[in-house]
Amino acid sequence: MPEKNKITNSQVVCDVLVKAGQENPDILVLTSDSRGSAKLTPFVKSLPEQIIEVGIAEQDLVSISAGLAHMGKHPFAASPACFLSMRSIEQVKVDVAYSHTNVKLIGISGGISYGALGMSHHSAQDFAVTRAIPNLQVLCPADRFETRKMFEALIKSDEPAYIRLGRSAVQDCYTDDNFNFEIGKAHTMIEGTDLTFIAIGDTVRQAMDASLLLKAKGISAEVLNVSSLNPFDDIAVRASAKKTGLVITVEEHSIHNGLGAAVAESLAAETGIIQKIIGLPDEYPIAGESPEVFKYYGLDSESLAKSGEKLIDKYGE
């Protein structure tokens, strides 16, 4: 077994922003009383003149960021995903997306990663809300290596974006950062012929481990990492789905209007493809740490492998 990764995606984001901020004073970081949760302390210490603390005022966080962008600055606004995607959504739509301001919105502690804090701090609908807004990139990296690549690309981009990050460190999906990354492009993590897992964010590692469990039983499961919901890689999704004919989408998000819905929309005109959506059901998720919540809702690797077996048994040739 590889050594367990202890570096969170938020720590990687901070490292990238410190380096970029030292090279470009127009790069600013804004937070809503969340610099600790966002792992931004090194940025505060290194570049104290380039961070703005707005307090618990998420709407103002977004609007101030948009105003700074209009002045030629390059703001990165970090706030818990549950608040950034709900409390300030009008400002996201009007001040950022509609106005096409160069604001990068970082939703920290996304999904159910706030754990025991419960429903008020879960963000099970952030993909649903943000992917419905035109002119807003919606992204979620699988691990620390993709996070670095993603934010290096975002620093060079002028497009508005919402990026969801989990709270805890996740096991690596990539072995290093020696891979091509492009916003809007999916990555095939494991090749397969019998079944396709399409996953996003922290569920990518779970899908990869499920594929390894199925391999031991003679089932070849492909794993596709879709880290971009908007823009969406229809070509890669359709190619993998056509190859295997059986698709399981996996997401730490409501089953409504997230990754599963995006895949279903992409495959709507295709025939002969079976899709199963695995995510958080139409209810308020239970409170608990991520591993137990994942297992409860069938998002862990063992549960995913069992779902794959059942789909093969029912529809496989």
TrEMBL record:
Q: Which family does it belong to?
A: Belongs to the transketolase family.
Q: Which PANTHER family match?
A: PYRUVATE DEHYDROGENASE E1 COMPONENT (PTHR43825), TRANSKETOLASE-LIKE PYRIMIDINE-BINDING DOMAIN-CONTAINING PROTEIN (PTHR43825:SF1)
SMART domains from the UniProt entry: Transket_pyr (SM00861)
Q: Which Pfam families match?
A: Transket_pyr (PF02779), Transketolase_C (PF02780)
What is the organism of origin for this protein?
Lactococcus lactis subsp. lactis A12
**Which key words tag this protein in UniProt?**
Thiamine pyrophosphate
All copies of the Transketolase-like pyrimidine-binding domain together span 7-172
Specify the protein name: Transketolase-like pyrimidine-binding domain-containing protein
The cofactors it requires, by name, are: thiamine diphosphate
